Amino acid sequence: MKHVSNDYLKELITEYRPYTTKGEVMADLPCLDNQNQNDLGIAMIDMDNQIYKAGSTDLSFSLQSVSKIISLMVALQDLGEEKVFQTVGMEPMGDFFNTISHLESNDVHRPYNPMVNAGAIAICSLIKGDSVQERFERIMSMLKTITNNENISYDNSVYQAEKRKGDRNRALAYYMSSTGAVALDPEEALDLYFRINSISFTVEDLARVGLFIANGGKLLNDNEQLISDKHLQTLQAIMMTSGMYNESGNFAVKVGFPCKSGVSGSIVSVVPGRYGIGVIGPAINEKGNSVGGGKILERLSSDLNLNLFSHSI
Amino acid sequence: MKHVSNDYLKELITEYRPYTTKGEVMADLPCLDNQNQNDLGIAMIDMDNQIYKAGSTDLSFSLQSVSKIISLMVALQDLGEEKVFQTVGMEPMGDFFNTISHLESNDVHRPYNPMVNAGAIAICSLIKGDSVQERFERIMSMLKTITNNENISYDNSVYQAEKRKGDRNRALAYYMSSTGAVALDPEEALDLYFRINSISFTVEDLARVGLFIANGGKLLNDNEQLISDKHLQTLQAIMMTSGMYNESGNFAVKVGFPCKSGVSGSIVSVVPGRYGIGVIGPAINEKGNSVGGGKILERLSSDLNLNLFSHSI
Amino acid sequence: MKHVSNDYLKELITEYRPYTTKGEVMADLPCLDNQNQNDLGIAMIDMDNQIYKAGSTDLSFSLQSVSKIISLMVALQDLGEEKVFQTVGMEPMGDFFNTISHLESNDVHRPYNPMVNAGAIAICSLIKGDSVQERFERIMSMLKTITNNENISYDNSVYQAEKRKGDRNRALAYYMSSTGAVALDPEEALDLYFRINSISFTVEDLARVGLFIANGGKLLNDNEQLISDKHLQTLQAIMMTSGMYNESGNFAVKVGFPCKSGVSGSIVSVVPGRYGIGVIGPAINEKGNSVGGGKILERLSSDLNLNLFSHSI
Amino acid sequence: MKHVSNDYLKELITEYRPYTTKGEVMADLPCLDNQNQNDLGIAMIDMDNQIYKAGSTDLSFSLQSVSKIISLMVALQDLGEEKVFQTVGMEPMGDFFNTISHLESNDVHRPYNPMVNAGAIAICSLIKGDSVQERFERIMSMLKTITNNENISYDNSVYQAEKRKGDRNRALAYYMSSTGAVALDPEEALDLYFRINSISFTVEDLARVGLFIANGGKLLNDNEQLISDKHLQTLQAIMMTSGMYNESGNFAVKVGFPCKSGVSGSIVSVVPGRYGIGVIGPAINEKGNSVGGGKILERLSSDLNLNLFSHSI
Prior knowledge:
Four copies of one chain form a homotetramer. Chain A has helices spanning 6-16, 67-79, 81-87, 101-105, 117-126, 132-147, 156-164, 167-179, 186-197, 203-214, 229-242, 248-254, 291-303, and strands spanning 24-25, 41-46, 51-55, 61-62, 200-201, 259-261, 266-271, 275-280, 283-284. Chain A is α+β, with helices and mostly antiparallel strands. Chain A folds into two domains: 6-63 and 201-303, Beta-lactamase (3-Layer(aba) Sandwich), CATH 3.40.710.10; 65-197, DD-peptidase/beta-lactamase superfamily (Beta-lactamase, 3-Layer(aba) Sandwich). The first copy, chain A, starts with 5 loop residues before the first helix and ends in a 10-residue tail after the last helix. The mean pLDDT of chain A is 96. At the A-B interface, helix 11 and helix 12 of A face helix 11 and helix 12 of B. Chains A, B, C, D: This is Glutaminase.
């Protein structure tokens, strides 16, 4: 079995960089553009707080759908599982993440899960706070603690773009409001959703988030339980079944540990009790997932025996 | 943390038996009827081959959808992952297991995964053998080896009932034939499908199958790799995302290890590297899963720290 | 064969009033409420400008979906058929009028036809005018001419209610905007849509609109072709296939001439070259159509041999 | 206004023959092949029994979906409207004629209407007779009377091909059987369905069927009411809303009288009280309708003022 090292990760970046040509950088997202087509970076942190990095580690990108695990984490802590899952389901779905039909076709008009856009917008409506601003600051504060990075901020140009091209998400929010399945103020929920999508991260920040989950909701060397252990098991189960859009089954098979991707080409991964991993590779496939990032995670899983379904883990 | 023992399992059976009143025994399945409403049984085997049992351990039931993991296992061994997943997808789906619409709505008209009826019928068409009889005997032979039970047989009355009330499955098979997405002989594929659904098991047989998977494809105390380790990781990932019908997400969250259920009220579970588990509880909920069985697995996961997403496993 | 007379219509009202107990008055629409449960009224005008009336002829109600034929008529006149039907289809659809799934499932994401909400909102975006106000005034002006009623106005309380409970329609508008299938300003299109839904009519006004269509786009005793004859044939064909929500097939069979209903319980009908008919009966069935109104039209068709598919018309 | 004559029809054939290059002859149907790409023929009979013909009037073709109006006509006569429409709906549907999803998505799992394959198969199960053979003979006997052509027969090679490539229709039949929405013997219903699809016609035979409907269910110069007048109004309404696959709305707008097409490129049309029309043009568009045939009907409607929605008919 291989061992993690900076050199090892560097080799992987070199080996899988050619795959970046097989995807496309998401159009219309400020910050990333065609110049980032071949970027590929990774950070990996173990439970001894040892960090390994390679590739585009300085690249800053917006969270996009990775924010869905942040908002779910906060909502679970705010309200508990029972209340959260009265509003949003926890079942995987075979359709695209921005589908609206699934809200119409199921009897209760509830989003299938918190990883699809409708679900994440609904989750945003649950987070505690007297205003969008206050809710956003609570999330930012949590993220700064988890990443141990006081400089986490959001990218206003991305936020403005999200609002400008947000009609599909508006449709989802208004549809949910119309059925009464989710009692939300559409514009407020969308505003928070657009803002957290616009938070800027590096792969190390991603890896810190992954590590926090992998460590069961505590910072390393700290006894404070910031988020309940049980909630994070729930979060990981949902990442495993639904975290990679309608390629989640493929990742469960090929990678075998919980991941969540964003259309910026980022992926945050959790190997419970072992690693937090962050990957960036802006060239994404037609499902919305980083092409190079997916290949690297598959290889890591195999080389380091990280597949949760392995009998010899 | 609790430890497994016959007494512990007996306590669980007693505690959760009242839940059997909340489900219904599947109508029209010979063998099981309303007299089995309150049956509840479990067997659990660890890697030292120690077996623990309680409740309705003598009850014989037909595999029903549990057969879907058997046929997938054999097909993967026969043809490899590439070929199998050209025919059937590996993505979870939010709809009911016997849905036909999903075959029409996706561009390639392929079953979403091998755990839905259409997928399992397609998988049956892939298994090697010159005749349905030969294919069936290969599967039976494999099962006898895995369960170490030469007496495994199929229940002809169930098989006849499956054929008699099999029009939904016929529709699925003929539909797949009509689109050409799956090159199958509908009647042959259905015949094998109906037969393996009719195989009779006890909870110990189920637990043996679970243990074989948990042990990575070898019998305990044997070095022969009967099924590739990688194929069984694939199988478990698919069980995790799709094994419990459209309640799979719920089981991933609440139980956190791979399970596969059948409408006979049986569930086979795998805790990789640790346990094989078999449960029977014929009273099923509207999703098709054993009510009492589900509650017991949830409790076991919690008591014994079996959730794969736990950081302290 | 019967002949139309006030007495004859009065008999029909008496005979079919009991059917008003089988429907429900649309909740949340100002103006009409449970006190209107048993209202039933009809006006019928022939090509000699002879008007026959009976029942609740003074009852004022909002157009609701009847406005869909007004906006289509104006859009056809403004832009011609080619342009209009590039934006909205002309095919009937089996689903409910406020469905959003159909926009997602068809390849071009176009509304199926101008009689479903999405289609009517799209049509509103096509009507010429520099502002919503100007477009609305053009429509009002046309309606005043057609009905020969200078007092036609809109009900502000209905308009405000439409806006307040309009989230489903907002979802439709934003969804269309998001796919780019319809180049519309969602809020402007919705504003016009809500306004024309709120226009107040009586059954005589409805009958005048029907008569105008039945006369091929001219006022009686006037040579001016206000709307092209061909456009009105198109309009009638669409009313016939899609005018009565997902009960359109049933009305084509039972009534056999073009009709358009609104959830206020109104129906406008056209017997080409013969009659314009207006009906009001606020008690509607689960499809959205006036229960008593439907029965009266079915009887009229039979008594007066109005079915277009009759060989002896 | 133009008048019908052989010369006039000949001009139309010449003018619209170029459109035959824009379609494709249905593959896999014996009898018609690429040699028939440019065939185009028409027959038109008025109420004085005057027949006008031009083009490929000798071409023999199989009825295909035109048979759906024959079986509906017989079923209505056998059982009455109430019973027939308890089994099959009468609402148009926006999807393709061979769709299976619509059976799953609606609550009662009933075919939307008798013009889609599922509906027509269900209708076949209703027709009276002790055997498929007897039912088929009853239909043939009716057709021979209506067409005044004792030589009407079915093409065994087409029938065999229908059976051989009939898996989609088998899926529909078995699906309906599985839901219990239609109490049918799938193989028997399919056998009758395949046989009547294989009946050979010429355009004159088609026109005779159209004329019979246009005359309200009597042969010209005969007082016997073979099929009830009301049933034929129902049939025409269903043709108008659903007869031309998912191009029915387009035909209602462009042509404006009831038509029913088959994938052999045939169309039967009814102008109530005036004409029966038969058209053949094997080159069909992607919706399944004859390209040249559609153009000719549109022109006829306009030239001869046949649109039922015309005020001056």
